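Methods — Computational structure assignment.
A single polypeptide chain was analysed. Its primary sequence is given first, followed by the predicted tertiary structure written as structure tokens.
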Amino acid sequence: MIRWLLWILGGAVLGGIVHLATVLVLPRTATQDAYARLAAISPVNAFVPLPDPGAQNAPLPFMDPAFASAVCRYDLSAGSLKFSAPVSPAYTSVSFYTRNGVAYYAINDRAAGRRVIELDLMTTAQRAELPDDEEITAADRLIVESPTTTGLIVLRTFAPEPGLMQLAKNSLNSAKCEKQQ
């Protein structure tokens, strides 16, 4: 009886180890992640509107059809980026992801408190190179530090009614994700 319990306990522990290892390794071995799928339709450091999601053709997982979305694949190896996006009448959100899909920063129109969301995106090393200017305060300049040199910025605007979807898409056209001068 005890021998059977030890075999069952050993099998459960081994199964748990295999399960945990699989869950941790599988995302790193996937070749068609969001960044790779968007590489075909979006240039680097420029916003591209995403097509409306369908049942079989959503470019990103879990896309809501009530939101118009645009994406910017960024590369900070040549320098920091200046991001700006106008706020739509209903709701606007901006999410920042690493190359591997880890979300590290998000802001919406209510948190920004302005009609335009503006920020600087840079790596920690690029931030350390900035001069300490006492005249520029944190309220004047929002700086987001990216943990990686490449990643995604996803901009979403809400259309409360289907007839307002074109207005939500139009607000995406003015978004900028450009190398800083």
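Note: The chain has five helices and nine strands.
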